């Protein structure tokens, strides 16, 4: 099995166990379940830079990235830097994240929050809503078209936006549907972890304009963003480039300021 297959196998097992411990009714009765949500897609359309800054402690390919700062310090830094939204990785085994990270971010900032997770079940969308998410991620590589439709429509019924992640033309063509808000092109091959920005350029023309285009992974230079904006991209998910530094918030601020000067 490749790393993605291992993650999904573990995730399905994790969801089954969680359902036994925390019933759906408990999630639906949580304080945040009825709270207002912020629109990430609107923020990206109306912002010159469109940075989605990510909180990411570690990854299967890079091991530990940053354990030195609290969630509150990092997301506050991102908000002060001018990010359009914040991505919170909630997978524990492979990325060192948790739903508690999402809760802490919700209590700290008022930016749209993306739950970055390997979602395979409606239960995880209920979790996202109950812990303060505004947006969920669906990954085209691990879901059938009917499953994407089911999960995205369910998310919308809860007032959540949907970012669909694709890696190639096949995934994109199979997944496009009205219940999506944003299409993200991952420049990282999830099976080999190799990165190529050309992936975003190649798929740009095939993404209908009603969806906000987001480029994900491997973005570490303002020149890359300026180049991708010419292909219609309005959102740019950046995690490791900020998180691997001594102060992610300050790094994000410097990056965004530099981008604004060049725009």
Q: Secondary-structure map with pairings?
A:
Elements: H1 3-21, H2 24-28, H3 40-45, E1 51-55, E2 58-59, E3 63-64, H4 71-81, E4 85-89, H5 99-108, E5 113-116, H6 122-130, E6 135-139, H7 145-157, E7 161-166, H8 169-175, E8 182-186, H9 198-204, E9 212-216, H10 222-229, E10 233-238, H11 240-243, H12 248-262
Parallel strand pairs: 1-4, 1-10, 4-5, 5-6, 6-7, 7-8, 8-9, 9-10
Antiparallel strand pairs: 2-3
Written overview of the protein:
This protein has an 8-stranded parallel barrel with strand order 1-4-5-6-7-8-9-10, surrounded by 6 helices. The protein has a two-stranded antiparallel ribbon with strand order 2-3. The chain is globular, with a radius of gyration of 17 Å. With 263 residues, the chain is α/β, with parallel strands linked by helices. The protein has a single domain, classed as TIM Barrel (Alpha-Beta Barrel), CATH 3.20.20. Helix 4 (71-81) packs across helix 5 (99-108) and helix 10 crosses helix 12. The longest helix is centred in the N-terminal third of the chain and has 19 residues, at 3-21. It is 43% helix and 17% strand. The chain has 12 helices and 10 strands. It has helices at 3-21, 24-28, 40-45, 71-81, 99-108, 122-130, 145-157, 169-175, 198-204, 222-229, 240-243, 248-262; strands at residues 51-55, 58-59, 63-64, 85-89, 113-116, 135-139, 161-166, 182-186, 212-216, 233-238.
């Amino acid at each position: 099995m490749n790393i993605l297959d291992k993650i999904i196998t573990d995730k399905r097992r994790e969801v089954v166990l969680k359902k036994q411990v925390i019933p759906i009714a408990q999630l639906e009765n949580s304080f945040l379940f009825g709270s207002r949500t912020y629109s990430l897609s609107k923020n990206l359309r109306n912002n010159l830079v469109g940075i989605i800054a990510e909180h990411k402690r570690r990854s299967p390919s890079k091991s530990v990235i940053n354990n030195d700062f609290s969630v509150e310090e990092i997301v506050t830094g991102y908000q002060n830097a001018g990010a359009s939204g914040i991505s919170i990785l909630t997978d524990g085994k492979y990325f060192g994240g948790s739903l508690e990270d999402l809760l802490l971010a919700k209590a700290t900032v008022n930016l749209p929050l993306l739950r970055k997770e390997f979602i395979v079940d409606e239960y995880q969308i209920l979790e996202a809503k109950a812990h303060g998410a505004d947006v969920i991620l669906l990954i085209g590589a691990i879901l059938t078209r009917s499953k994407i439709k089911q999960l995205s429509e369910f998310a919308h019924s809860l007032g959540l936006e949907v970012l669909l992640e694709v890696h190639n033309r096949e995934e994109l063509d199979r997944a496009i549907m009205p219940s999506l808000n944003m299409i993200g092109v991952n420049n990282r091959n999830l099976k080999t972890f190799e990165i190529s920005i050309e992936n975003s350029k190649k798929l740009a023309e095939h993404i209908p304009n009603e969806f906000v285009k987001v480029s994900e992974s491997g973005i570490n230079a303002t020149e890359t963003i300026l180049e991708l904006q010419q292909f219609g991209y309005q959102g740019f998910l950046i995690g490791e480039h900020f998180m691997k530094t001594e102060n992610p918030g300050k790094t994000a601020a410097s990056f965004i300021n530099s981008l604004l000067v060049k725009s």
